[in-house]
Design a protein that fits this description.
Order of helices and strands: HHHHHHHHH
């Protein structure tokens, strides 16, 4: 049951992040191949890194045809109907928050299934959630969103932490999964809506050379 649930969450997150990756490629005016590459990278990089780290070889993202077909489908949808997708920008942000939640929770559940410790499982769940976005941003020569103060990795870690705590307390898996998804999604969505950001270092004021001081 846990395996089936993990796969379902993984596939849902795969489509959502594939769509966000494809839209990033379209905004950078990439060709169809470039859009599909970004779609695949955004959708699978986090899962590939997770599976490599826990020894699930070969990674599901390259051994299961569904993880290849879904990014291709999302990429084609975005490429040919991007004006419609772009008009739904607010919903795309909601889907991105949902994708982050799905990947963070599925990554944590899979890490726990491979008998990782609580801290390692939570960190791996976070890495699963943010990995695709990091690779996507690097491919288009952009500082990853996760490093720019957005409450993104923190939201993923919160969702992963809820799953780990729930499993330690031996709560039912469906309850733990739902709690993790809601925790991550609510925190990420609230951050988007309210403009919450992590603190940044205060930059010293630069003196104006024309002032003579």
């Amino acid at each position: 049951m846990v395996v089936t649930l993990t796969i379902a969450l993984d596939l849902g997150g795969t489509f959502v992040f594939a769509l966000s990756g494809a839209m990033a490629g379209i905004k950078r005016r990439l060709d169809l191949f470039g859009v599909l590459v970004l779609s695949f990278a955004a959708a699978t990089s986090g899962g590939i890194a997770r599976d490599m780290l826990i020894g699930a070889i070969p990674p599901a993202s390259i051994s299961d045809w569904r993880y290849i077909a879904i990014p291709v489908l999302a990429g084609l949808v975005a490429f040919y109907w991007h004006p419609i997708v772009d008009r739904l920008h607010a919903w795309v942000l909601v889907l991105d928050a949902a994708g982050l939640s799905l990947f963070a929770v599925s990554g944590t559940l899979k890490a726990l299934a491979f008998h990782l410790g609580p801290v390692s499982a939570a960190l791996l769940g976070m890495a699963t959630g943010i990995g695709g976005g990091v690779v996507r941003d690097l491919l288009i020569a952009q500082i990853p969103t996760v490093l720019k103060g957005d409450i993104y990795a923190v939201a993923a870690l919160a969702g992963a932490g809820v799953v780990v705590v729930g499993k330690l307390l031996q709560f039912p898996v469906h309850f733990v999964t739902a709690a993790g998804l809601v925790s991550c999604f609510v925190l990420r969505f609230a951050a988007i809506q309210r403009g919450w950001r992590l603190p940044k270092p205060v930059q010293p004021r630069r003196e104006d050379p024309r002032s003579g001081r």
